[in-house]
## 1
Amino acid sequence: MNEKQLVANALFAVLSDSLTLEEITSLIERPKSSELGDLAFPAFRLAKELKKAPQMIAADLAEQINKEGFEKVEATGPYVNFFLDKTATAKGVLAEVLEAGADYGSEDLGHGGNVPIDLSAPNIAKPFSIGHLRSTVIGDAIAKIHEKLGYNPIKINHLGDWGKQFGLLITAYKKYGDEATIMANPIDELLKLYVQINAEAKEDPAVDEEGRQWFLKMEQGDEEALRIWKWFSDVSLIEFNRIYGKLGIEFDFFTGESFYSDKMDAIVDDLDAKGLLHESKGALIVDLEKYNLNPALIKKTDGATLYITRDLATAVYRKKTFDFVKSLYVVGGEQSNHFMQLKAVLKEAGYDWSDDMTHVSFGMVTQGGKKFSTRKGHVVKLEMALDEAVTRAQQQIAEKNPDLANKEEVAHQVGVGAVKFFDLKTDRKNGYDFDLDEMVSFEGETGPYVQYAHARIQSILRKATATADASNLSEVATDPEAWEIIKALKDFPNIVKRAAEQYEPSVIAKYAISLAQAFNKYYAHVRVLEENAGLTGRLALIQATAIVLKEALRLLGVAAPDTM
Ligand code: ARG
């Protein structure tokens, strides 16, 4: 039973004539100051029915209520304030955490329901950008959070591997490309070709036309066009997979846009049969005026398909294949119009399950206040940033703990973890400035700070001469700094649920920071290892803290080394 339920039940026992248990629960508040107790019940709602002033009702309630589980229950003005029995609460939480271990906070809300998560989705022949990093780490965290709550997440990498840009790239390759140069440095070389041909196509319509023709050939299954395209894709994937290896992220499916190239006719025909396709200047569109959106362009004049045509086929395929309970798209906020159009077209076609599709959007990453753009070749590659983060973590470890045995491994966990954590602690709709110094710092609201708190606990536990005992908590319960930790540990299951509901890993990242801070505060004033009567209780407290810190980090895809 959680603390709110405890309070609600106690109130319900004396109020069942006036309010339901649900009504009571919804009225319970958390007082602003802890001097007013842990939870409070306002009596205003009852004044009319009981024909008494709220102050008097509160006073009566405080007297009538069964005080079991509470240190005290008292009325302050129109409020009934509940002070939890701290020893009992602490015992309950710590016993639960120590017994459940990493499973603490797990719950079966999803009943195994499928949740496809569209994440990462870089574009082949282009660098893996910082924006794709966001999608990858946010998507991966959302998958882990959903799995903890009993859903079956399905991680799909919807690679950008289809479209007219590849027709243009084939044109460039045929004009200037050199196989050996590309093989030596695929993404950089392909990007150069892409930048060059885009500039040319802008000046010269004939070049643009040639690119268009090559894409048409791809869509018509032309052998040469597809061979060159496949090669672009293969060499790009070698690089992307190296990055995924560094990030420690795996996918269930690598089905890019090209996977749907033979699945688009069906949805286009379907839209046509439902009378939704209209001709406009030779192109086929779906009118979305009633959604206050621009028309969706489904097919160009020459019959070529577009990004949205492929996403329509994708959505239908995912519903058919996975019969999802919800379908998530972790994609930058700049595509919000696209996803509104996508859902609106599906809705028009009568697919009500489109309501279960959510665009989990996120803000833009800047560097020095400027946005990244791959079009003009101005790009900071994620891989370089990751390597640099690891190097800086190495330097920090060399200073702090030069004798560390598995330095390389820990530096990798700290460096990569720092980049991921920094990304995830930001409310996803906000952007952030990519600042490696800040990310890898052991101080401040960073991943390394949280990792270090965990490692510090592990080191204390290694030195301990006794084993944790969650029934020896009278000291812990009366220590205000320890009480902050207890309250945070108790809150973890709610935190996980809130993060899932809002598709917001930052809820967990912020929680991890505050739990690490609470531990450091406690540790600064208590000699945990002192051999006195309270020792085993203190060990229980810090061991439970380590378990929850590690699990919070795991949900964010960040490792928690035992030494660092
Ligand atoms: N490749 C796209 C990009 O880099 C993202 C694709 C997102 N997923 C989707 N189903 N549209 O912008």
## 2
Amino acid sequence: MAIELKPTSSPLSATERQALLVDPGFGRVFTDHMVTVRWVEGRGWHDGELVPYGPLQLDPATMALHYGQEIFEGLKAYRQPDSSVALFRPEENARRMNRSARRLAMPELPEELFLESVEALTRQDVDWVPAEAGRALYLRPFMIATEVGLGVRPAAAYLYLLIASPAGAYFPRGVKPVSVWLSTEYTRAAPGGTGEAKCAGNYAASLVAQHEAAAHGCDQVVWLDAVEHRWVEEMGGMNLCFVVGSGDSAKIVMPSLTGTLLPGITRDSLITLAGDLGYEVEERRISTDEWREGNASGEISEVFACGTAAVITPVGTVKSAAGEWTVGDGEPGPATIRLRQALLDIQHGVAPDKHGWMRTV
Ligand code: PLP
Ligand code: COI
């Protein structure tokens, strides 16, 4: 199915666009166009269009508004040294979106259609792709149930949309280490739930704990497992990575994918990159006791958050009901800096893409 292009010229002048690109922040500014594709039971995907960015008109009884059938993705397009633009591992986002779709009883979007949509929008709004290192065009594909009705069942009609937003640092303080709150009162995801799907409900349910983290002076919440409240899972919108040992013996430890956390594409890429850089990598469960005691003994030297929006952001301070500690010396550690640079160099096309992760649009 081809996406029909119905673009209009940008409502903004080049100067106005440049002004917005000076400090885009994260998710505040949107480009000129969006993609929409409809799905109806019995007919499948149809009416793919690239149209001017604008509001949606929805019936108040639209099912997504009542029972939360919404899934989304997040990926970035990076300006390359020759001023072309390339997407980072978009095929992985297409696959994860379909895993989320299956979990939420929504229709799968053919991978080629997903890729066609991200390429068409990136090409159309290419002037919005920032050129500075560490900046990129953030693409947000998502799908909502559009059938009108209040019966609780999988809807028979859906809308897939794609919007784009030029993005700088996700955290307002850039790559400065963030502080995290270990939440024991709330749970993000339980076995058999939707933790490994990227659905709106997971984020809605996390906001009260994010509030709690802020009340303790922290930037983010760290989620623990739902059963024992002692295994570290992930953060609100990013995975976590631990550096155990230091110097030549530093090992990268990623909390294992238990089914209750999101299998991050950045996480997966860093497992490969860490191996390339000579680190031993382990995927295993890591407890809050191990974190606290390992921090005190110096065994856990660095901890960082990783994700498309957050890139790699060091964790500097940890607070919990059981106490507070500083990770390492509270500054970004050497392994964190090395991995961050290695990832950004590939994404911005200044290091060889030996794993074939970049897809030129
Ligand atoms: N965990 C959660 C809850 C997220 O929302 C994200 C962001 O997408 C991640 C982890 C990191 O995933 P990725 O690296 O694919 O962006
Ligand atoms: C991403 O990194 O793409 C995310 O979805 C994280 C957050 C903005 C929800």
